[in-house]
Amino acid sequence: MATEKEATSEVFDYERSDLPMWERHEKWMASVGRVYKDEAEKARRLKIFTESVEYIESFNKQEGQTYSLGINEYMDLTPKEMRGWCIMSHWVRPGKDGEAELVEYSDNEEEDLEHLEAQSKPSTKD
């Protein structure tokens, strides 16, 4: 008998709770094109992925929820990394004329932070 989720939408392999978490992670990685630099990074990201999936599954089992959570492409990011990614990928700041200015940053976080700090320092011109 199909579960409600199976009856209403496509179930991706990485959403199957009968699979070991490492296998779900592998299938998720393939679906979002994620590749890690080495096995240590992969192990660290698997731990984060596991914690995220466990949270989602626990939340979705609670009675009375008006919405449900799902697995997405950010499952291997910590909350801190997620906030940084959201902030650093598109930063809105006041422009010189007082209007909002959208600034896009690169994938180099250190370089972006240096640029942001330099931009936020008051001018020393007299």
From TrEMBL:
Segments forming domain Cathepsin propeptide inhibitor: 25-82
Positions with biased composition (Acidic residues): 105-114
Domain of life: Eukaryota
Signal sequence segment: none
Region (Disordered), start-end ranges: 105-126
Compositionally biased intervals (Basic and acidic residues): 115-126
Name recorded for this polypeptide: Ervatamin-B-like protein
Species of provenance: Cinnamomum micranthum f. kanehirae
